Structure formats: C-alpha cells, structure tokens
Amino acid sequence: MNPMSYDRVEVDGIYANEWGREEVLHRGQHFPSDPQLGASEWELKEYLFDNHHDGKTDIRLVAKADDNKDSSNPSEPRKHTDRGDK
Prior knowledge:
Elements: E1 13-17, E2 22-25, E3 42-47
Antiparallel strand pairs: 1-2, 1-3
C-alpha cells in the first residue's frame, strides 16, 4: 500500500500523487495533501541520492593491473571447453 497524505516520508525521492503531481520529498517530512483532491495516495517515482558526480569515473570502477589475473581453474564456466563427450 502506498503512503497517504500526512504520513511520514521514509525515503528521499520524487513522489507523484494520484493526479500525477510530482513532489521532491526528503526523509522525515510529511506527505502533503493535494489542494484540490485533499488527502491523496503517493507513489515513489525516483530515488534521490548524492553521487558526487564531477564528470569523472569513480575510482572504484577503474580496472587495476592486477584485476586481469589468469586463473587456471578449468571448473569456471568461461574456461570450460566443450569436448562433445557428454
């Protein structure tokens, strides 16, 4: 069940009511009532999060030199060769 007006917001995000009116709400606030509809139901449309985007790739996503180790374990699916002897 979606939250109703006057309920407390639990997750930061963009919420839309029954008529499609979108509102940016933060954790701890209360869902507002619609001026024409009164108490309405709200649905989460998009999460808000701060990703500190500076136009650079996150350092955790950059491949490192030691990431390309060749493991000789043939039980890995990509190392398995199909010999046709099933």
